[in-house]
Each structure stands twice: as structure tokens, then as C-alpha cells.
């Protein structure tokens, strides 16, 4: 199994939040998977973790 690691920094000037950065990373992973012709729609292949404003770990998964 291959792993794809993508990091997005939270830019205060742009008004980004940790959730917005996590969503951008998730979209980037989808683009890479599509280019490599990998079907990530089945199963829990993608998990994006981030800390919310209260410092709690949140997970976005497919």
C-alpha cells in the first residue's frame, strides 16, 4: 500500500483555519489519486487529521 503525505500550512493572512487547510490537503490527495488512477472511494483510504481551534484532534475521512 502506498502512502501520500501532503502538508498545508495555515496562513493567518489568508484567513485560513486548520479545517480549511485540512480540506485543501484532502482535495490535493484526491487529485493525486486521480492522476495515478487509484480508486479511493471504497474503504477508509484517506484520513486527514488536524487540530481544531480548541486543540482537539479532528479527522476528515472518505
Give the structure's gist in a few sentences.
Helices cover 29% and strands 16% of the residues.
Describe the structure.
By secondary structure, the protein is α+β, with helices and mostly antiparallel strands. The protein has one domain. Helices cover 29% and strands 16% of the residues. The protein is built from 1 helix and 2 strands. Strands 1-2 form a two-stranded antiparallel sheet. The longest helix has 18 residues, at 18-35. The radius of gyration is 13 Å and the shape is globular. The two termini are 17 Å apart.
Which terms summarize this structure?
62 residues; alpha+beta; two-stranded antiparallel sheet; 1 helix
Topology:
Layout: H1 18-35, E1 47-51, E2 57-61
Rg (CA only): 13 Å
Q: How much beta, percentage-wise?
A: 15-25%
Instruction: Assign a percent range to the helix content.
Output: 25-40%
N-to-C CA distance: 17 Å
Q: Please tell me what the overall shape is.
A: globular
Count of domain modules: 1
Q: Pairing-aware structural class of the strands and helices?
A: alpha+beta
The poorly predicted ranges are: none
Amino acid at each position: 500500500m502506498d502512502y501520500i503525505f501532503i502538508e498545508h500550512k495555515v496562513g493567518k493572512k489568508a484567513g485560513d483555519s486548520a479545517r480549511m487547510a485540512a480540506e485543501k490537503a484532502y482535495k490535493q490527495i484526491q487529485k493525486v489519486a486521480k492522476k495515478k488512477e487509484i480508486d479511493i472511494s471504497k474503504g477508509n483510504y484517506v484520513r486527514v487529521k488536524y487540530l481544531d481551534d480548541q486543540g482537539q484532534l479532528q479527522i476528515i475521512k472518505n
